[in-house]
Write a structure and sequence with these properties.
It is elongated, with a radius of gyration of 30 Å. A hairpin with a 2-residue loop joins strand 9 and strand 10. The chain has seven helices and 30 strands. By secondary structure, the protein is an alpha/beta fold. Helix 1 runs parallel beside helix 6, helix 3 runs parallel beside helix 6 and helix 4 crosses helix 5. It has a six-stranded mixed β-sheet, with no helix packed on it. The chain binds adenosine monophosphate and magnesium ion (MG). Adenosine monophosphate (AMP) binds next to helix 3. The site of magnesium ion has 4 residues, from loops.
């Protein structure tokens, strides 16, 4: 590693990534059918074409009343009609007068003059009158027109990843098509003389390239389009050619060759390419030798430059460092507004003993049910152990100053 090595705390490294993510220019956009836009990032805000609800809406089956008429109960009111959901305007009383009620269904418009709906359970109707046993407060069981959203306001901001509720909201305001951000192209470059591509038969000391696939899967999940480059040998010229090719994408993810070994050439090659490094390590485990930087000048984007990550080659380190550091950049290149990383807490099932000094992200299993969720580490052979990590569904976050964490304590986790 060069003299200019910058090893940061986990939080500082993460903040640097977030700052860069926040400065990225918005990507190109495309128009998609409503359902095809699910999980994509919205490029143009969804605006309400009408008030929501468009009329004062009854939330119950019952009787629309003037609440003042029921100050004393039981009370008896004259029934002047019935309003179904979707009732045409001419069938709705223009105005509900003193001493009057109208039978009304859930989702139907409450007529003028009425200010509340009494649930049908508290009523009995006979001979054109209704007997009501409960009083109601003004506004009860009625959602005023425009209370959820006024016509013309932004319902979903640009930069939001669309989910079921956002898709429903778009449908409710008549958006059959949505403008979304194009997916960023994410180049993935695995390095190492021992690494062979998955379609080859590995020799006795060779290792199949799994990192390009975990990174490709994580990239898709973060909204990017992975581009798998050929495996780079531990040889500077060929590595440099492939790095340059990768820098033509929107971001370059490299794995392997970033530790302190004699054949760890990634940083050397990037330095030759006049890369600027924002950090070259984070005080975490797994994943300490993680590098983040930018190369200007040799890519299509001559001025802006292309971000790159040098991720450690150990498979679990690769996965963890993508989630912690690369994900925000991939998401931001895809137009998403920057997200803070938030840990959730779960109860520890058995004691943890950890090495101090580094923040650790250890593969773990979250189990239990309902409020009784609990978490424990998987037994693993260290950060090369993909088999253990495949059994895990989260990482437990162990702070650098804890040597022992007793069972029963609530510990932070990152879900995966
Ligand atoms: P390195 O970061 O190059 O020192 O590699 C660390 C460890 O990760 C070594 O055991 C490598 O064989 C392994 N490794 C590196 N790249 C890959 C890869 N693409 N797929 C699977 N294992 C890898
Ligand atoms: Mg290597």
């Amino acid at each position: 590693m060069s003299e200019a090595s910058k090893v940061l705390s986990f939080e500082d490294a993460r903040h640097i990534v977030e700052e860069h993510a926040a400065m990225l220019a918005p990507p190109e956009t495309e128009i998609l059918d409503l359902l095809a836009a699910d999980r994509r990032v919205l490029a143009r805000a969804i605006v309400s074409d009408r008030d929501l609800p468009p009329f004062p809406r009854s939330t119950r089956d019952g009787y629309a009343v003037r609440s003042a008429d029921l100050a004393a109960v039981p009370g008896s009111l004259e029934v002047v009609g019935e309003i179904k959901a979707g009732e045409s305007l001419e069938n709705i009383p223009k105005y509900l007068g003193n001493g009057q009620a109208v039978s009304i269904m859930t989702g139907a418009p409450v007529p003028k003059g009425a200010d509340a709906v009494v649930m049908v359970e508290y009523t009995s109707q006979q001979d054109g009158r209704v007997e009501i046993t409960r009083s109601v407060a003004a506004g009860e069981n009625v959602v005023p027109a425009g209370a959820e959203a006024k016509q013309g306001i932004v319902l979903v901001e640009r930069g939001v990843r669309l989910n079921d509720a956002a898709i429903a909201l778009a449908a409710s305001v008549g958006k059959l098509r949505l403008e979304v951000c194009k997916r960023p192209r994410v180049a993935v470059l695995a390095t190492g003389d021992e690494i062979v591509s998955v379609d080859k038969t590995p020799g006795p000391t060779q290792i199949r390239n799994s990192n390009s696939y975990s990174l490709a899967a994580q990239t898709r999940n973060a909204g990017g389009e992975p581009i798998l480059l050929p495996i780079a040998p531990d040889e500077p010229r060929r590595l440099r050619d492939l790095v340059e090719e990768g820098l033509n994408s929107d971001v370059l993810l490299m794995t392997g060759g970033v530790s302190m070994g004699r054949y760890d050439l990634v940083e050397q090659v990037l330095e030759e390419l006049k890369a600027e490094f924002f950090f070259t390590g984070a005080k975490i485990q797994p994943g300490r030798p993680v590098a983040f930087g930018r190369c200007r000048g040799m890519s299509r984007r001559e001025m802006a430059g292309t971000y790159f990550f040098g991720l450690p080659g150990n498979p679990v380190s690769t996965m963890v460092t993508f989630e912690l550091f690369a994900r925000p950049i991939v998401e931001a290149l895809g137009g998403m507004s920057p997200q803070k990383l938030r840990f959730v807490y779960a109860k520890l099932k058995s004691d943890i003993r950890a090495k101090m000094g580094l923040k650790r992200f250890l593969p773990a299993i979250l189990s239990g049910e309902f409020e009784a969720s609990q978490v424990e580490l998987v037994t693993w052979q260290g950060s090369g152990d993909i088999a253990a990590t495949a059994r895990a569904n989260c990482y437990i976050v162990v702070p650098p100053d804890r040597e022992v964490i007793p069972a029963g304590e609530f510990v932070p986790i990152v879900l995966r």
